[in-house]
Amino acid sequence: MSRFSQTANVLPKKKLPALFFSSLVLLGGTAVAAEDKQEDFYTLPEVVVTAPAATDPLTVETDPKAPRQPVPAADGGGYLKNIPGFSATRKGGTAGDPLFRGLGGTRLNVLLDGTYLQGGCGGRMDPPTAYVFPESYDKIKILKGPESVLYGGGDIAGTVLFERATLPFTKPELRGNSSLFRGSFGRHDELLDVTAGDKKGYARIIKTRSHADNYRDGDGREVHSFYTRESLTGILGWTPDVDTLYEFAIDTSTAEAAYADRSVDGAKFDRRDYRFKYEKKNISPFVRKLEFNAYHNYIDHVMDNYSLRALSGMMAMPMAMNPDRTTVGGRLAVQLAFDSKTEATVGLDYQKNKHTGRMGGANYPSLHRTPDMTFTNYGLFGEVRRTLDTRSRLLGGLRTDSLDVENEKTGQIASDHNRTYGAFLRYEHDAAKAPVTSYIGIGHAERPADWWERNKAFSLEPEKSTQLDAGFLYRSKKLKASLSLFAGNIADFILITSHGTSARNINASFHGGEAELTYALAGHWTATATLAYTHGTNKSDHGPLPQIPPLEGTLGLQYDNGKFGAGLLWRGVQAQNRVDIGNGNEIGTDIGPTAGFSVFSAHLSYRPAKDLLLAAGVDNIFNKTYAEYVSRPAVSVPGFPPATIRVNEPGRNIWVKASYLF
Fold first, then answer.
1. pLDDT averages per 10-residue partition of the chain, 662 residues
2. What is the CATH number of the domain that holds 446?
3. How far is 245 from 72, CA to CA, in rounded Å?
4. What is the C-alpha R_g of the chain?
5. By residue range, what is the domain housing residue 458?
6. Residue 2 lies in a domain
7. What pLDDT does 1 receive?
8. For a Cys staple, 93 with which of 127, 225, 261, 557, CB 3.0–4.6 Å?
9. Is residue 4 a part of any domain in this protein?
C-alpha cells in the first residue's frame, strides 16, 4: 500500500513521470520521492484541494498549506470541518469546536506537534484547535476511532495530529514558505515560514496573522464575529548526525474574538508553549528508534462583556472572567524490530494540568486566582504490527491510564481516581489481483470525565466504548476510493443535560461511515465525491443521541493541466429531525430540528512558476442563508439585528490567495 507523505512537501529537482505527477494531483497530496544521493530539493505548490486523501486504513492525511475550497476559518476546527465525518460548532468567526462522527471535546484527542493543549474557558470559547493556524503546520493526520493506543487514552472518536517536520539539510541553504490571503468580510491572513540550516542543524521561524471583520449571512444580517489572531513560532534543531535530532520549540500567540452565541466575548487568548524533542534512529538492529518529547504550555484567557461590545440592558455592569490552565507533560516511545515480520512501539506518557480562575469587573487583574481542579495522568502503551504474508498483516495494541483528579473547590468532593484501559486488534489485507486494501478491526477505549463535565457532576463513571471498524481502500490509475464503516456501543456515555447545567451517565450506540471517491476523467478533468453519515441512539432513554450531524455529501469537478486549474464544488446536507432538545455534550446541546441545504462553490488557480501558486474562489455562490445542525444558539448583541435561532453561516465569500515557496 503506497503511503503518501505530506509532511515534507518536497520533490527531488528532476522531471517526474507524467503518470506519477497526475496521481499526486488526483489525491490532493504531495509525495516524497527521494534518492539516497539526491541532495537538491525544491518545494512543489499544490492545486486547490476539495477532497482529502485516505492514505491507509482508518487514516486521512491532508496538507494544510494547500489552498482549499471551501476556504475554512483560520483555525483548526474550521479546517477539520471540511473533512468527511467532521463538523464544527459555529460560535462566531473563529474557534469552532470540532466533532468527528458527532463526538468532540476530549472524546477527540488533539495533539499540536506532539503536545496536549487544554483550553481554559468553561464554555469552551477556546478549544485546542482555536490556537491553531493550520498553514503553520506541515501535515494534519486523522486516525479514526479507537484504533491506536499511541497518542493518549480516551480516543473514542479518534485522534487528530497537527504535525511539523523540518527536513534535514545536506548543505547550507535557506528555505521558505509564504502566503497572502484576502477574502470577503475584511478577512486577511499572512504567513511567513523561513528555515535556515546545514548538516548540523537548523533554525525555523514561523509568523502568522489572521483577521476578519463581522461577516453577514445570506440574508445580509451582520453577525458579531470579528477576530484577530497572531502567532510566532521559533524552532531550533541540532542534528549531530543523520540519525540524531535535538529540537527545542517555542509557540506564542495572542488573539481576541467576538462571539454571537453568548453574552461575553473573548478579549484575550494568550498562549505560551515550550517543547523539547529528542529522536535517535538505528540504535541497534533491535531498537530502530527512540523518541522523547516534553512540553509545558500556559493558557491565559479573558472573557468579558465590555471590551468588544457595548454594555446594554441586563448586561450594563462590566463583568470579566479570567481562567487559566497550565499543562506539563512528556512521552517516551521506543520502536522495536523483533524480526523482519514483527515490529512494535512501546512507551509511556505523562500529563498534568492545573486550572484556576478569577472573576470580577474591570478590576479583575488585581484579584487573586482561585484554584479549581488538577488532573494528573500516567499512561503505559504498546502497539505491535505483524506481517503475516506478502499481502496480510495484523495490528494490535494495549494501553492503560491512571488518572487522579484533585478538586479544590470549597465544599465539594475532594478527589477522584480512575483506572482506564484501551485496546484494539485489526486485520489488513491487500488483494492479489486488484489494487484494494481491505480491513476489519475492533477497538476499545475508556475516557474519564473531563474538567468541563466534572464542573456539572464531579463523580461520573468513565465512558467505555467498544467499536467495530471495517472498510477498504482502492487505488488505480483512474480511480481512488475508500469506504470506512463503524458500529459501536458506549457504556456510561456522559450526557450533558438540562441545557448544559448537569450531567449523567447513559448507555449509547452509534454507527455510520464515510466514503470518498476521486475519478480521472478524460483530459485533465477529475471528479470527486464524499459521503458521511452517523446515527446515534440513547439506549437508556430510548431516543436519539443529541448533537449527531445529519447525512451530508459533496460532489466536485476539477480541471488542472499543471498550470491552470478550475473547479466546482457542491455540498449537500440532509435535514435533521432526530433531536433531543436541551441535552448534548460539553460543546453544545440540541436546539431543535434543522432543514436540509446545499451550497455551491467554485475556484480558479494559476501556476506561473513551479514555486508560485495563485488561487481565487467563491464560496456559497448563491448567498444561501443556512445554519449547521451543531451550531450554537444565537443571542441578541447590542447594535446587531435580532438573534436567529442558530448562529448562521457566512453568506457569499469571495477570496484570493497567493503562495510562494523559496
1. 35 33 30 33 55 86 90 90 96 96 97 94 96 96 97 96 94 96 98 97 98 98 98 98 97 98 96 98 97 98 96 83 98 97 98 97 94 97 97 98 94 93 98 96 98 96 98 95 98 97 97 97 94 98 98 97 96 98 96 97 96 96 97 95 96 97 93
2. 2.40.170.20
3. 34
4. 24
5. 10-661
6. no
7. 40
8. 225
9. no
Domain membership flag for residue 400: yes
Element (H, E) at 15: none
Name residues whose C-beta falls within 8 Å of residue 160's C-beta, 6 or more positions apart in sequence: 76, 80, 98, 100, 108, 109, 110, 111, 140, 141, 142, 143
C-alpha cell at 186: 475584511
- The β-bridge partners of 46 are none
Residue showing cell 478527589: 415
Q: Which residue has the cell 464554555?
A: 123
User: What does the alpha-carbon distance between residue 478 and residue 373 come to, in Å, rounded to a whole number?
Assistant: 54
Residue position matching grid coordinates 477527540? 108
What is the per-residue pLDDT for 19? 30
The Cα–Cα gap between 296 and 352 comes to 10
- Distance CA(138)–CA(195), nearest Å, equals 13
Counted domains in the chain:
1
C-alpha cell at 614: 495563485
**Measured at the alpha carbon of residue 91, what is the angle toward residues 85 and 94, in degrees to the nearest 5?**
80
Cell of 631: 451550531
Nearest-angstrom CA–CA distance, 253 and 100: 26
Q: Give which of 630, 629, 634 is closest to 647, Cα–Cα.
A: 634
Residues in the chain: 662
Is residue 3 assigned to a domain? no
Peptide bond into 641 cis (omega under 30): no
Q: Is 110 exposed, middle or buried (0-12, 13-18, 19+ CB in 10 A)?
A: buried
d(CA 20, CA 25): 9
Angle (nearest 5°) at CA 247 between 244 and 249: 170
